[in-house]
Amino acid sequence: GESVGLHLPTLSVQEGDNSIINCAYSNSASDYFIWYKQESGKGPQFIIDIRSNMDKRQGQRVTVLLNKTVKHLSLQIAATQPGDSAVYFCAENKASGSRLTFGEGTQLTVNP
Amino acid sequence: EPEVTQTPSHQVTQMGQEVILRCVPISNHLYFYWYRQILGQKVEFLVSFYNNEISEKSEIFDDQFSVERPDGSNFTLKIRSTKLEDSAMYFCASSADRIQETQYFGPGTRLLVL
Questions:
Q1: Percentage of chain A modeled with pLDDT above 70
Q2: Chain A: nearest CA to B17, how far in angstroms?
Q3: CATH number of B5-113
Q4: A3 falls in which pLDDT band (50, 70, 90)?
Q5: What is the percent of chain B with per-residue pLDDT over 90, rounded to a whole number?
Q6: CB environment B46-75: b (16+ within 10 A), e (fewer)
Q7: Which end of chain B has fewer CB within 10 Å, C or N?
Q8: How many domains in chain A?
Q9: What are B's interface residues with A at a Cβ cutoff of 8 A?
Q10: In a domain, A17, yes or no
């Protein structure tokens, strides 16, 4: 039978490679953006965030880039490890509101 | 490291029954949220709560849903009369502040309505 549900974009990389996960957001009023990692059966885990007055922010092995002109967000993971395998979601938030709006998610698979 | 906790981890119920999902937010946080995730889909916002009242809710959060902070630590989501389509993973989250503050998520409650 036909499967029901969202088909996630997938990214498969070799251990040690760098990964880039992309996200397009829709609301030009959004001014706070977050990347979450979700492992199977678990809740979203905060990775890194960025506010709209910045275009780049770095964390430990992760970098987020924000391009407000084209409403695009990316997450770069350096030296990807098998433990990085998960679904990655971007989320956006407006200063006037409290809700996070999540993107579609990307399934990252790291091959040893 | 402080974390959001949720109980139960799994709940199976019959259609039409009431369920209460429980959450203990991070202790110094002031804003609380419920989200849900239908299997294979993205996370969807349900409701946010501050100072003992709802501050924002989505179109999903209809009269069947209610939230409560019954004491100083717990935050609950009640579904009055469950429907098959309520089957999903329900996540609680909390943040120190509402304005551009990180929301930390609990591990979720998997609800299955039969």
A1: 90
A2: 25
A3: 2.60.40.10
A4: very low
A5: 82
A6: bbbbbeeeebbbbebbeeebebebeeeeeb
A7: N
A8: 1
A9: 4, 31, 33, 35, 38-45, 48, 50, 55-56, 58, 91, 98-100, 102-108
A10: no
